[in-house]
C-alpha cells in the first residue's frame, strides 16, 4: 500500500504546553489507501492528527486527536456527505465505531463478535466510506486528546466535563475542522454511541444555534438518555422491561409457548404489557391491591423468566443488575452481560444482587485495545509514546441542566431538513432498545416530528455491529439514511 507521509506542526509559544508534553498540539499525518466496499474498489486518504480547541479569545484550551477518512476517486469532494463520529462514556475514546462499525477497517473477530488471537484488524467491506467521508473525534482526555495549559495553570475541568460544556467546545472544534477542510457545502451528520446519544442531541442544537452549522442528520447508536437511565423511577423499571424478554428468549428461559415464537413476534407483546399494565401498576406503589400485584407479577415472570416469588419480593421493581445475576443463577450458575446479554460470566459466588464484572466489556477490550494501538502507529503512521486512553479521566461529569431532548426538538423544528435515526440492539441491557424508542417519543410529545424519526433494531447488543450479520445490516441502514436525507428535496420550509 502506497503511503504518503506529511507532517504539519503549529509553532507554539514556549510558555504553552500540553498536559503531556509528548502530545503535539496541531499536527497531521496523511496516508493513502484502497478498499473494496459493497463490491466496488475505492481509494481514500486518512488524515490522522491533532487539532486545537480554541476559546473565544483564540487561546488554545486543548488538543483533540482525530482520524479523517476521505474518498479520493470522486469528482467533487466538497459536496459529498460527511459524518462526524463520537463515542460516549462519558470518557470513552472514539475507538469502538472507528475500527468495528463505519470505518474502512474492522476487528479480527468471529461472526458473533468474540475476539480472535492474534488480535488485529482487517478490511471492512460494509463501511459507509463509499457514500460519505467520516471523521472520528476523541473528546478531551480520551485517546491522545489532552488539555493544554500555560505554566502553573490548572486544567479548567468545567470547560470540558459536562453535558453543556462538552457540546459547546466540541461545536467550536467542529467549526474549525469544517472550515479547515472546506466542508461547509457538504451534507453534515453527527453520530454518537451510548453517552454519545446525549452528546449529539445537545450538539445538534449547539451547532445550529451557535455555529449556524445546519445538519442533515443526527444518528444515535444505543443512546443513553439520562432523563430515564438509572433514575429508578416507575418509568425506568417499566420502559426497560421488554429487554428482559429479549435476553430471556435468547437464553431460552421463557415458556415453550414464547420460545416457539420469533423474537420480533413476542417483543410487541412485552412492550404492550410494559406500557399499558406494568407502568400503571408501578405508579401505584404501595396503594396497589394484592390481587393486581399478583397478576402483574405473574405476567412479569411469564415475559422475563424470573420467578414470580422473586418479583414479588422486589415489589415488582427488578433492577437490571439483579436480572443479569438472576436469570441463569439456578439453571447454569452464570451471569449475563450488561452491554450485550448474549455474553456469559462466572462470578466468585452464585449468591448476590449483581455480577462481579461485565463479561462483554472484558471481551471487547481484549480485541479493541491492541488493534487500535497497532492500527494508528503502523497503518496510519501516527507515532507517539503517549498512552491511548480507551477510557479517560473526565469525572466528575456535570449532568446538571441537561435539556438534550428539548434541544434536539428545537434543532429539528428550526431545520426542516433534519432527520434522526436511532439504532439499538435488542440484547443491550445498559441502554435498552425500548428506552431508545421511548426517548424518540419524548423528544417531541406533539408527534409532529415523528415522520422524521427512524428506529432500527438488531439481534445483538450495545455494539450491535460486532455481529457480522448486523454489521452489514446496520451499515446499509446508515447508507440508506444518508442517501435519502442528503437529497435535494426543495426549499427548507414547512
Reconstruct the topology from this structure:
Blueprint: E1 16-18, E2 27-37, E3 40-54, E4 60-71, E5 82-86, E6 105-107, E7 121-123, E8 133-137, E9 146-150, H1 163-180, E10 188-193, H2 195-210, E11 217-221, H3 234-239, H4 241-250, H5 256-259, H6 263-283, H7 290-304, H8 308-313, H9 320-326, E12 335-336, E13 344-345, H10 359-379, H11 404-414, E14 419-425, H12 433-443, E15 453-458, H13 468-485
Parallel strand pairs: 5-8, 5-10, 10-11, 11-14, 14-15
Antiparallel strand pairs: 1-9, 2-3, 3-4, 4-8, 4-9, 6-7, 12-13
Helix pairs in contact: 1-2, 2-11, 4-6, 6-7
InterPro entries: AB_hydrolase_fold, Peptidase_S10, Ser_caboxypep_ser_AS
Keywords: Carboxypeptidase, Glycoprotein, Hydrolase, Protease, Signal
Signal peptide: 1-18
For the structure shown, list the relevant keywords.
two-stranded antiparallel sheet; 2 domains; 13 helices; eleven-stranded mixed β-sheet; disordered N terminus; Rossmann fold; alpha/beta; 494 residues
Describe what you observe in this structure.
The protein has about 500 residues and is of the alpha/beta class. It folds into two domains: about 15-230 and about 365-485, Rossmann fold (3-Layer(aba) Sandwich); about 235-360, no CATH class. The chain has helices at about 165-180, 195-210, 235-240, 240-250, 255-260, 265-285, 290-305, 310-315, 320-325, 360-380, 405-415, 435-445, 470-485, and strands at about 15-20, 25-35, 40-55, 60-70, 80-85, 105, 120-125, 135, 145-150, 190-195, 215-220, 335, 345, 420-425, 455-460. The strands form three sheets. Strands 1, 2, 3, 4, 5, 8, 9, 10, 11, 14 and 15 form an eleven-stranded mixed sheet that branches. α2 (about 195-210) links the parallel β10 and β11 (about 215-220).
